[in-house]
Amino acid sequence: MIKPASIATQGTKSVKKEYLKGWISYTIMRYWVYGLFTIIALIVPWIKVNDNHIFLLSFDHKKLHLVGVVFDMQELLPLLFLLLMLFVGVFAMTAIGGRAWCGWACPQTIFRVIYRDLIETKLLGLHKRIKNKQHKPDMGKPINVGKKVLAILIWSALSLLAAANFMWFFVPPEEFFQYIQNPSDHGITFGMFIGLALFLIADVVFIKEDFCIYMCPYSRIQSVLYDDDTIMAVYNPNRGGDIYEGEGNARHKVYSKKKDLLSDNPAAECVTCESCVTICPTHIDIRKGLQLECINCLECIDACTIVMGSQGKPSLIEWSSEHEVIHGGHTSFKRPKVLAYLAVLGAITIGLIMAGTTKEHMLLNINKSTRLYKVVEDGKVENIYTFLFQNTDNKKHRYYFEVQGVEGIKIIKPDKPFPISAGFKKKKVVILGTDKILVKNSKQDTPIPITIKAYAVDDPEKIVVFRKSVFIYPRLDILEKKQGK
Predict the structure, then answer these.
(1) Average pLDDT over residues 99-116
(2) For residues 111 and 306, what is the distance between their CA atoms, to the nearest angstrom?
(3) What's the confidence (pLDDT) of residue 450?
(4) What is the pLDDT of residue 481?
(5) How far is CA 226 from CA 221, 234, 256, 290, 340, in A?
(6) Residue 231 phi/psi, 5° resolution?
(7) pLDDT single digits (tens) 109-122
(8) Which architecture characterizes domain 362-483 according to CATH?
(9) What pLDDT does 16 receive?
(10) What separation, in Å, do the N-terminal and C-terminal C-alpha atoms of the chain show?
(11) Looking at residues 220-244, what average pLDDT do you find?
(12) Could you tell me where in the chain the CATH 2.60.40.10 domains are found?
């Protein structure tokens, strides 16, 4: 936890400057984090390892690219582990750091900062300052329609980039640009791209932080994950004084002026300037206590640090836990809830590694025909199958297979290896037969378990799979009738 530098004395102008000199703005740190996440999001879809993407979930090709390894739809076990990791990770992160994701990494928050603070305020000067987010800073003045339209146009262009960036994780960039040049042939891709861009425009320009307050499901579940050791923005009523009274939703504001607060609590340090209130993007008063709307952006801490620092005092709002700030204890990170989350995340990580390192470089599906068997001349028994081979490697191979588990069953068709190009499938009608007496059962047909070992002829050690199936052998009387006995 980053705190302003301590000072030995207070009261003089030089002491105040020295106090604020040691302060590190959370807002500036957030901007750096936003930039880092934005760069990562933009470049990851372009990075390839062995001509495969770092991460790509292609619904078009039905493949998952993960750290340069390609998994087919039939082997998407790593995706399951990734989703579990995301689900449990959100719970763990919330239990430890509250809605840190919302304030420091959520695209909604980043986009609002870009539009409100950068485009509208810094670039176009629509607002004089960004410290008052409770009301429009230009409230009461005529709206500059030209600048407002320009701001929306600039954000619209950025929305197209953001929507394209999102799509690149599902459609490779090299294919995406080809698809959008022919929207009539790729209507779904083009429609999702434009629809997502329009949503971003409506969300960032018109819905604003109401999305975080009323629409985002994350805020609905966080309350059950919080405890007294959860790290978040916490107002210290022991120093500042209780501005609100009551419990839970019934808490109501008691003091709006410093003189009223001091009359009842002479030691209270809060100056009731409400800088922490006006700067809050979700329009809450952090002095009221834990609220679902708080996104842990920590701008209230910066505002209070400036005000209290000018008096040579530390901020009344800290990035810490209620256990530490209000009750005077120490934040515990080794509590059972956190340890359980970390244990589950560890198990999921191990599962992901195991699933990712056991990739099959070929796939094989075996379907037996509806006809159980066929008895031909001299009593030879044949079973017909459909084998669907798929080459999931990145180069062409020649494939064949053999029957294991039962002696006497031979491959009648196909009689030689066959080629499959990288990423392609090939369906083969397979006939297995035997001229030996495998079972003497005069009451019923007998299913005989067999194992099919399929492999690449040019690399049988690396590219090999095993599949279970059955060979149906007829009743003895049917066999003898065919043999003329």
Answers:
(1) 92
(2) 26
(3) 94
(4) 77
(5) 9, 13, 29, 10, 15
(6) -80, 130
(7) 999 999 988 999 88
(8) Sandwich (2.60)
(9) 55
(10) 91
(11) 88
(12) 362-483
| CB contact at 8 A, 157 and 114 | no
CA 393 to chain centre: 27
Tokens 């009461």 — which residue? 140
Contact 466, 445 (CB under 8 A): no
Tens of pLDDT, residue by residue over 255-301, are 888 888 888 889 999 999 999 998 998 889 999 988 888 899 999 99
Q: Considering the entire predicted model, what is its pTM?
A: 0.75
Quote the pLDDT of residue 194: 96
Q: Is the pLDDT of residue 318 over 90?
A: yes
Cα 202 to Cα 207: distance, rounded to the nearest angstrom? 6
d(CA 444, CA 478): 10
Tell me what pLDDT residue 4 has.
Answer: 39
Q: What is the mean pLDDT of residues 43-62?
A: 89
- pLDDT for 1 beyond 60: no
Instruction: List, in order, residues 6 or more apart from 17 with CB less than 8 Å away.
Output: none
d(CA 399, CA 132): 69
Q: What are phi and psi of 391, to 5 degrees?
A: -90, 105
- What are the pLDDT digits (tens) for 126-163? 877 777 776 554 555 677 889 999 999 999 999 999 99
Give the pLDDT mean for 303-323.
90
Asked if residue 3 has pLDDT above 50, the reply is no
349 Cβ contact partners less than 8 Å away, ≥ 6 residues apart: 85
Please enumerate, as own/partner, the contacts of 107-111 that have beta carbons within 8 Å and a separation of 24 or more. Answer: 107/162, 108/203, 108/204, 108/211, 108/212, 108/216, 109/212, 109/281, 109/295, 109/297, 110/34, 110/37, 110/38, 111/162, 111/200, 111/203, 111/204
